[in-house]
Amino acid sequence: MKPLLLIDIDGPLNPYAALSRRHVPDGYTRHRMRPTGWTEGPALPVLLNPAHGAELLALADRYALVWATTWEDEANEWIGPHLGLPPLPYIDWPAMHGSAPDGTLWKTQYVVEYVAGRPFAWVDDEITERDRAWIARQGPGRSLLLRIDPRIGLERADFDALAEWAADRDEN
To answer: Residue 68: CB partners within 8 Å, gap ≥ 6?
Structure first.
């Protein structure tokens, strides 16, 4: 069974922090979106790099791709088509932005529950050492947690690290 690749949108695929610096990283295109709940004011600006879709599809040979984002299923409507991705399963968060154990990100406990012991890689801009330590104590199996800079988004080195981790898993 393939390991899971859990994909956050805001930060890894949408380097939203670049908007405040008014510097759009190379390869990104600005989109205006109105997902559920975004009803007031101007549309949400979202930066996406279409090349990321091909990078993720290349990893799909070794991973089962899953959205791990507050966009939930709306990622398949608003994000996936811009990247050339097919509809992906998503984590349906039981609660968002609530309390979390040991100072971890609110998503972390639900990620461990979702993976249910299966090997996984997770890309998110809010992963910390507390999340890594908490996940290690839970013993969900082999994992790779990549914190992505929300000013830059996913880079070549991140895709290489994901491919290498999956290749190492295949060899063991």
So the answer is: 6, 7, 8, 90, 91, 107, 111, 114, 122, 124
pLDDT in tens, 2-48: 999 999 999 999 999 998 877 788 999 999 998 887 778 888 899 99
Query: What DSSP state is assigned to residue 132?
Result: H
Nearest to 127 by CA among 143, 148, 98, 158: 148
Q: Give the separation between CA 146 and CA 47, rounded to whole angstroms.
A: 20
Of 132, 119, 117, the closest CA to residue 169 belongs to: 119
pLDDT in tens, 13-26: 999 999 887 778 89
The owner of tokens 């929300």 is 150
pTM, whole model, 2 decimals?
0.93
Structure tokens at 103: 């100072």
